[in-house]
From TrEMBL:
Topological relation to the membrane, as annotated: Multi-pass membrane protein
Name of the featured protein: Sodium/hydrogen exchanger 8
Organism of provenance: Ilyodon furcidens
One matching Pfam family: Na_H_Exchanger
Transmembrane segments annotated in the record for this chain: 20-47, 81-97, 117-136, 142-167, 179-196, 216-237
Family designation: Belongs to the monovalent cation:proton antiporter 1 (CPA1) transporter (TC 2.A.36) family.
Encoding gene, per UniProt annotation: SLC9A8
Domain of life: Eukaryota
Domain spans labelled Cation/H+ exchanger transmembrane: 20-234
UniProt-annotated location(s): Endomembrane system
Keywords attached to this entry: Antiport, Ion transport, Membrane, Sodium, Sodium transport, Transmembrane, Transmembrane helix, Transport
Amino acid sequence: TAEGFFSRSDNSMVTGWETFVQALGYFLNMFFGSAALGTVTGLISAVFLKHFDLRKTPSLEFGMMIIFAYLPYGLAEGLKLSGIMSILFAGIVMSHYTHHNLSPITQILMQQTLRTVAFMCETCVFAFLGLSIFSFPHNFEISFVIWCIVLVLVGRAVNIFPLSFLLNFFRDHKITPKMMFIMWFSGLRGAIPYALSLHLGLEPIEKRQLIGTTTIIIVLFTILFLGAGTMPLIRIMDIEDSQSRRKNKKDVNLSKTQKMGNTIDTEHLSELTEEEYEAQIYQRQDLKGFMWLDAKYLNPFFTRRLTQEDLLHGRIQMKTLTNKWYEEVRQGPSGSEDDDDDAELL
């Protein structure tokens, strides 16, 4: 946004207030446009994989998922929107709806493949980030670095505390002030801000070097200082909670997962039949607002509930592939099966 205003030739004719309003409008258009594009793409993928049954061809099903995963990013970049925001919302929608329309094999394949690719990409980016400290010329300004760190922390506080306060009106498990403080403290910066700093077209080159150097310092500060201090901070606050619980014996000592609030677990295989799903919704009469709308109408519309035949086919497919893998392990690299090795393996 700032780069766009700096490149304009009529800056002298625009007041500061007009510049702020235009920047805010540009930001909102970018945010909601990218979010809408990602959401629509995710919903289209859910409807497509619900009505076109590709469960018997996992490789084709996997390929379609890869296409739908990349599609919102390409469309957003082509429309001059934010590709990162687009795939973020597409991922949220696809994990909630599209994931349950996949066969059990593809569900496992997608999770493990993308998890591996994400880990490799993150490792490469942080390796590049570390090498850039010694590979490129730097322009260091101590006052600029200090002001940037202070404003980054203030900006995160302006986001975390008011939004958490608003969310508490719609949550059964409230976000406590301690949780808010931990979320503010653990705001780590990494690959995305550094990648953005590399794409700034500022002139002269000293400006780009100043922005790049400052970004690297902020990344190192948040990762090494804030990241390293997050767990000790949680332990200190947990000790305080434990002492207060000892004083009040009536309090129930919940697990950390229950204490922080229940979340929807998408790491499981979708094996609910239509009848089981309806029974589950019937039992959960406490749903309100969007969760009730989602469970009652959106989820049945965008996801395909398994029939008993689909469930049986999925289990047979899993068993067949598992037996095939064990068979290849027993045969070994040479393709010959050794009775002694078989006995040892069994």
